[in-house]
């Protein structure tokens, strides 16, 4: 089983021509004496906002350029189901008189089933594996809680399992190397970054020792078993993907020097791009000429958020290994480019105002088109997907926020931050192809 990037070809058309036809409408409200940046209070139709936000956004899967075995996915799914099947759900008062405990077990079982259902619908193998790992945690909590009630499991058993997983993590890390094909360093970066990310996730579940001073109950034993199982599942996925990747290489070679040079080169580029950026705590009027008129507007909210996400005081280095830092640098370059784009457009008077739900719909449409265009126009689709998949998920975030207002009318200033997500998506996505080009050059890809 492998994610097939070509599966998205059907949606890789460009809508820029179509958007250009509506440019007069989209840019209505451009700077001018008779059309100020910030008009009086604007009321938006809440029901129309909800309809707009709830429409399907662009679908972009995170890249996973490794053929994952069908049996590995099936084993993870079957383990979750098998753990749930050990408990006679739904429990009755005869099975378990403690009502609070019955409710806790039922909640965990429902949580596991929800993730299992989501895994079936997932379009990408990477997302499917992650959802199955998340399902196995609460499924194990159900199994372990019931086993503790029945006297078949103790807290000491779970502590032993935790130590076993921690030892497995140490051994796996000690044997890791950043190998790959020198002719395709992008594939190696993506795979090693993912493996590193999964290892950090596994660590988080088992790194802290349980609080032995708290009462030990079947529920607490179940929760500790939950953590161990999620770590075990995530480590298993990391090991499988890493091994399958290495097996796919005809002549594995160390790419650590290539990765190091790329990271350092991109760090210099980021530092250079940040030289003329306003200070970290700059106010909106200091971000762009005429910024004082942006307070309470969608453009102002987007510009402030973009500025706040930039790396200050030199390049911020996340808690990630070398390959993960390179992918973070792709994201950072796109964020810097998005901020520069929006700042320059506002300074030039190229500013969209929002006066109705129809304007929000146009803004959302432009954001979706920008994601699709960036995917089609990037020199390496896999690198582009590392950022565009995240941006595509922001459409759901915006929908969840805007749905809160229901059918009531709402003042623009109350929802400006939520609507601004669409503007951020648009300008960041537009900067992705250039960020990909910078990264390819740093990796020595011609």
Would you write up a description of this structure?
- The chain has 446 residues and is an all-alpha fold.
- It folds into two domains: 43-62 and 256-443, no CATH class; 70-254, no CATH class.
- Helix content is 64%, strand content 2%.
- The protein has helices at 16-21, 23-26, 46-53, 70-85, 99-121, 125-149, 155-174, 185-206, 218-247, 256-273, 284-287, 298-308, 322-347, 357-377, 381-402, 412-442; strands spanning 43-44, 179-180, 253-254, 410-411.
- Strands 1-4 form a two-stranded antiparallel ribbon. The protein has a two-stranded antiparallel sheet with strand order 2-3.
- Helix 3 runs parallel beside helix 14 (357-377) and helix 5 (99-121) runs antiparallel to helix 6 (125-149).
- The radius of gyration is 25 Å and the shape is globular.
Helix amount = 55-70%
Described by strand count, sense and barrel closure, the largest sheet is: 2 strands, antiparallel
Alpha plus pi helix count: 16
What's the N-to-C terminus distance? Answer: 29 Å
Question: Which class of secondary structure composition applies to the elements?
Answer: mainly alpha
Query: What portion of residues belong to β-strands?
Result: under 5%
Overall tally of domains: 2
* Low-pLDDT segments, ≥5 res: 3-38
Order of helices and strands: HHEHHHHHEHHEHHHHHHEH
Radius of gyration (CA) equals 25 Å
Task: Output mean pLDDT.
Answer: 88
Strand order in the largest sheet? 1-4
Number of strands: 4
Can you tell me the overall shape?
Answer: globular
